[in-house]
Write a structure and sequence with these properties.
Chains A, B: Residues 469-554 form the Rhodanese domain. Two copies of one chain form a homodimer. With 556 residues, chain A is α/β, with parallel strands linked by helices. Chain A has 15 helices and 30 strands.
Chain lengths: 556, 556
Amino acid sequence: MNATKPPTIVIVGGVAGGASAATRARRMNENAQIILLEKDPDVSFANCGLPYHIGEEIPNRDSLLVATPEFLRRRFRLDVRTRHEVISIDRERKRVEVRGGENAETFWIDYDKLILAPGASPVLPPIEGTDADNVLTLRNLSDTDRIKAIVDREQTRTAVVVGAGYIGLEMVEQLVHRGLKTSLVELQSQVLPLLDPEMAEPVAQELEANGVALFRGRGVTRLVKDSQGRVTEVVLSDGSTIATDLVVLGIGVRPNTKLAVDAGLEIGASGGIATNDFMQTSDADIYAVGDAAEYRFGPSGQRMRVALAGPANRAGRLAGQHAATGHSDPMPEVQGTSVVRAFGATAAMTGLSRATANRLGVPARSVTIVAKHHAGYYPGAQMMTLKLVYQSETGTILGAQAVGGAGVDKRIDVIATAMQFKGTVRQLCGVDLSYAPPFGSAKDPVHMAAFAACNEIDGIESFCDSDADLTGKQVVDVRTPAEIERIPLAGSSDVVAIAVDELRERLGELNARQPTVVSCAVGVRGHIAARILKQHGFDVVNLSGGATVRNRVSFD
Amino acid sequence: MNATKPPTIVIVGGVAGGASAATRARRMNENAQIILLEKDPDVSFANCGLPYHIGEEIPNRDSLLVATPEFLRRRFRLDVRTRHEVISIDRERKRVEVRGGENAETFWIDYDKLILAPGASPVLPPIEGTDADNVLTLRNLSDTDRIKAIVDREQTRTAVVVGAGYIGLEMVEQLVHRGLKTSLVELQSQVLPLLDPEMAEPVAQELEANGVALFRGRGVTRLVKDSQGRVTEVVLSDGSTIATDLVVLGIGVRPNTKLAVDAGLEIGASGGIATNDFMQTSDADIYAVGDAAEYRFGPSGQRMRVALAGPANRAGRLAGQHAATGHSDPMPEVQGTSVVRAFGATAAMTGLSRATANRLGVPARSVTIVAKHHAGYYPGAQMMTLKLVYQSETGTILGAQAVGGAGVDKRIDVIATAMQFKGTVRQLCGVDLSYAPPFGSAKDPVHMAAFAACNEIDGIESFCDSDADLTGKQVVDVRTPAEIERIPLAGSSDVVAIAVDELRERLGELNARQPTVVSCAVGVRGHIAARILKQHGFDVVNLSGGATVRNRVSFD
């Protein structure tokens, strides 16, 4: 940078990452010229809040405008230009070609440092009819307004949401809140495809309990229009049809990398703009942040796209500082931590699922525990299922998933924090968490999961997955007869029922030479039973999460 | 241990640490003889739940019995003997002298391994009248029953709680819930003396808002009895008096170390039973866990007592395993993480307060931020104040305190987890926390505090404490005139009011050579103003937490 002339920092995209970059750059450098270019009419809006405005939980649209262009000009002296689209980058001459302004003319803006925060665009399925007025994606305030206008119409009674990811679930919840009969279509065989299947199941049950019609394992093949060009029916790959007044598509996003590609910037293996630890692209004067950029993903060490608001904001802040001053802390690894609420269920995750670890060839094990979110003797305790995925030999935590009600986000945040330090399940046993009856337990669900994992690593106890094939195994259900009668263990016709408290006396009923699986309601009594049998020479495993997870029921 | 004869493990004390030790020992060794001796009638009861039974939030007394003796016998084959007190240890012959049984006879029990979990006893103030029937401490179920019986009486209208620590606050809350006019007396000048004073203040305000009469900075000098021997009046050190029907003393606990002292076991500097990393005392066959034992305290590295349920349970589990098998993981350092609810306020802390760090001579700095517990645009966001204490040069996190409503426990747990890894404030900036509008913010309060700390370390911004003496300083309040008029900055008569958005134009009104303090409502605008002034050559600091913390008001 020229010492006499303050730098010009041009930022492309004015939402999470871009706005963070712009404001941090200003705080670092009062004299820099900072130009924020946004192709849409709004900057710095609450993109994660859009579904909640449609659902009228956030009644006031203005609440979504976290910072208006006028606010950013006044407080941060930013040169904010909305409805200005950058159409090319001339890296040689360090300038961007912009189209915008009253007459949508094209002109050039010079930069010393350029920060790309172009975000991502919703993917449309390759079928006819997605252009209809009542088929929408949700990415910005205009989308929000259009969807909300349709929902607000009295004749709108039904909706189909396509894609059971985070935004799909949030939309479903809000559309149901608005009184619409809502269907959810997901190509995968489960909702929340980033989760392991059994962890997603309680969320699916909660959706159905709230009247949502679930269509899993099916794609949309056709959108049938009426004579006015409005879609009235969704046709699925199995031939079934759903009549609807509104279709919301949430099947994924594609990073907006065209500008970067055209400029010859390196694109990473995950399809995002390649970056280094300071969010610099292959051109050191150009940074990339947000959904279009790649980050270092903690559990795998690979660089990949992570389309989440938290990393976008933090990366924007660092890139803004680096652009303004020439230095900053490196961008920390991200763990992909996320959370979603669907009616009374909350699901959260961080890092790798077991399925993803398997797919990547990472040697992983996992344990699943079921526990209450605070002391069971204090009223209002809610059950949560917590699954911990870890590296088989080292015990390094690879990821975690939790589903339940209150306190799910807290446990995932604690584990995500341990992952930031490359923590092991053994270290996780020792985290000193706050406890009082309304908030937790002296042995927190996090501890219980970590204890189970260490027991497995230390050879104290072995587990099998909740969906394990029990054929040929001696299956011992150590619940009481009344419990077993109420909910027999799924997928096992030939179960020996011996309550844990009778197990020591009734060992003679079991075959110590047959591989044995013990199960209880959630895994705690199974743990005790497994220890008894192991010490009597049995080759025994405890069914992870017990009948609760295997049967996918809620016991409380 | 003799390979042919299973070991005898004797455990003294059957609540948190003792019960955890006994059950883990059994799971590790089916054949061990495990004798659990408890001087009281109950084992494994929910000691943290006692106030809530008095307050009838936990209506059923049986809920407090986490595990009955009969349950422990049945499920874990423990030889549980309640009303059995160990009166001496004969280390030479490896046996304990016990008094108990129907005729309270005295006899000896041999041990191979002995685990001491004797807990702590409430401290009584050295004054007359503490023996009255209506002057009680709260430690076990008998205490609970006695207090509850008094509260249940219709003629009981008023109560005095002495000691504003965790149990004192919980009792106050529950007594108010029961309709008693309740007073709280605390010798220190603040409630929750483990917290820094300004962090405890919102809790004090919440107590007063709920009708609690607060008497801080005063001790109890006399308990005045009526002719029936019941205390009817509490006299304080300033001469003031409080009429009362019930006195609950919660001024602290003393570790029950007599048995250990008499046996010649080493006592540590903090007055607890000295232990090594496996919770072994100076006699390798004797372990100590729970409130009477010492732990390694993370922030200082010193061994000290930590009278909290979490460490007791975890240490008991490890000691039980070590006693049963000869090996276990070492006990992790503890951070002293704790949480308490008082009506609508929650306060939580971990590690060192700033005051404690100062007292220990640890070079510490701190930052305080005020932020919402989830996205501000999503309804129901509650304010929290979060203070982060860190080592000045290294940035190693030493502790944190938070006060507010929802989400306070989560932030402290995240920071406590980072502390378990000796994390720095710089590493804390990068923790990847779950975010969706109902759960958090893309820039979480944890991040905001860590950012502020790093800004200070990097020389980007300086802070002064909320109670700083502003004499001689140029104080610039960058809030709007309306905000300032509503709540003028406390303790500063001569404030220049320049809203942050006008600061750049009105720099000429300020003296660039006078040391300057900027303040706003919570510190965010102050940060922006401090950066503007610093870049214009001012020697400027931002008032930590702004007027919210300095004035000790809730801005919302």
